[in-house]
Specification:
By secondary structure, the protein is α+β, with helices and mostly antiparallel strands. It is 39% helix and 24% strand. The radius of gyration is 46 Å and the shape is flat. The two termini are 79 Å apart. The structure holds zinc ion (4 copies). One zinc ion binds next to loops.
Length: 511
Amino acid sequence: MPDKMTDSPLTPLTDKTLTRLRSLAKGGGLDPSVIELIETKEKVFAIKGTLTLQAQSETESQQSFGRIKQTPTLRVFASLSELASEVQTLQKSFIQDGRWIDKALEELDKTKGHGWGLEAALLSWSTQKIQLAASESCPTCHGTAQHPCNDCKGIGYLHCYTCEGRGRELCPLCYGHKMDPANPEKKCWQCEGTGYAICRFCHGQGKTVCPTCKGRGSTPCTECNGTGFISQSVTVTQGARLDFTLPSTSGLPSGLLRMMSRIGNDKLAEGHADVALSYTPAEKQKPTDTAQIDLTASLPYADIKIRFAGKGALVNVFGKKGILVGVPPFLDKAVAGARQKLAEAAQGNQALQDALGPTRLMREAFDLVLSGKTHPNHLRRLYPVGLSSEAAKDIMALLMLALKKETAATRLYAAGGCTLGATLVFALLFFVPPIRALLDGLEPAESIATQLVILTATLGLVWAALTYAAKWSLKHRYPSAKVATNQTIGKTGLSALGVITVIYLLMAALS
Ligand SMILES: [Zn+2]
Ligand SMILES: [Zn+2]
Ligand SMILES: [Zn+2]
Ligand SMILES: [Zn+2]
């Protein structure tokens, strides 16, 4: 490196940036020495932030019927009031014994970035959820789970209304006259002259089973859903709310501040800066539900003046990842000549191999297109700075055009061959009597279905053959390259498919 002497080991970010830019320059066919360092201001900035913690204790309770059983993770109390007082004690002690701060710090220590940039975030820990419950006898039924039946007053039976409890009704034949209405001299045969018959509704019992309680005399208690118990379960969730503030940003370079707001404070610890945490508890004082923690982010940053092939520019380098801002598209000019040749090749006026030349960037773009990665972003991933998006887009588009030109002849022959083959198959089908007879022997609907299947199958085969032809042609030309299998068949291929369909329809109509 020509200016190795000026790169002091005190500026690792600057060194890394220059190495990277020189490698990009080389990729664009430039001499690495066109990247010259004019001056750099590099520093690891210690940015102070404050994290405010606020103790959070929330309860959520739920009523239910039936008895709740104690488990290793669930404490069950004998009464609802005992439960309520335990919940209150828990809430108070969470803040008063100060342990919440220790828990929160322990948790923050494990968190990447220690909470830098977090706003209105909830910090939780493994013991943050406490489950409690209580079951009590139902106050309405006193644990019996039943009520005496309202309709039968607990007896289970109702008086028969028809016979008023007597079990007998007036004889339906003589209406109590005791004589046979058809033969007034004789006794009524129905009631044997008594004038009464057994009640048809209660079958002589004088009472009927209470339809409400089905004879049990009681109904399930509605207050406890027939369980005899009312229960309450409470979940106490304890944690801390986090709020981050940046007290002062004065003295920080404007380029650094711009990048910080672009990346977002909460993302800063994701590979851009190291964050350290420090907490000094306030002197012995009353229990508190808030605490403040000091965070310091160490962020490397450099403002570098660089000459790109003679032209000066100010480049900002941000964070441990060395994000670059302000790099001019210096590669555009470097690949302008190669682009011109590529345009010629796309017109078919030059061989693509010659047009590519020795430039690494062009070769890399070519390999991308061959392997099916034709989007300009694939190239921009390799050259994220230095190459404009317009140039990347143009290079990829020209490469695709040029490749199409190269395979045009093969694709045309393949299309011609396929059309001829398909025509022969159709001719056999429609004009050779024994085969034609098979088709005519079918029901009209079956015949149409069969013809459709034949046409679709033929088109599918032709499409596969044309795709393969395009791939084969590329593979043949560039044996060492990785060629994508999903080649497009192009306009030639599509026309062939259209022509084959028309031929089929014509033959079907003529036959
Ligand atoms: Zn009850
Ligand atoms: Zn009843
Ligand atoms: Zn009756
Ligand atoms: Zn009678």
